[in-house]
Amino acid sequence: MIHCACLLAEKDNSLLLVRVHNHKLWYLPGGKIEHEESPKKTLIRELEEELGITVPIESLNYVTTVIGPSHDGKDQVTLICFAGDIPNSFKPLAEITEAAWINKDQRELMAPAVKLLLAGRG
């Protein structure tokens, strides 16, 4: 099981999603929770590393947790999802090659756990 902290940012029927080099599917911004690191601290670290944005910890609010298959189906992932105040501008950094607002109807582009998240939200 892979435990991740993720940002659930929604705007105009779209989600802020990211894509990693050599992957077809889009994911929620965030990443793996390190040993003895809180989910909120993980998310703050990952957003700085991957999108170059700073998010105040007090702006992060827990939304939901989703458990589903990893992108390749070889493992399970737990996505601990938070909403928060994010700046309007961001840029893909580190292993992230693209970041974009993807329409929620384009589920064929999304990783399996993101699809499960949307299915549970109606």
What can you tell me about this protein's structure?
By secondary structure, the chain is of the alpha+beta class. The protein has one domain (2-120): Nucleoside Triphosphate Pyrophosphohydrolase, CATH 3.90.79. The chain has 2 helices and 7 strands. The strands form 2 sheets. Strands 4-1-6-5 form a 4-stranded mixed β-sheet, sandwiched between helices. β2 (10-11) and β3 form a beta hairpin. The model has no long low-confidence stretch (mean pLDDT 93).
Radius of gyration: 13 Å
Q: What's the CATH architecture name?
A: Alpha-Beta Complex
**Shape, per Cα inertia axes:** globular
Number of strands: 7
What is the top-level CATH class?
Alpha Beta
> What is the topology, as strand order, of the major beta sheet?
4-1-6-5
Kindly report the CATH topology: Nucleoside Triphosphate Pyrophosphohydrolase
Helix content: 10-25%
Number of domains: 1
Strand content: 35-45%
What are the segments in which pLDDT stays under 50 over at least 5 consecutive residues?
none
* Mean pLDDT value: 93
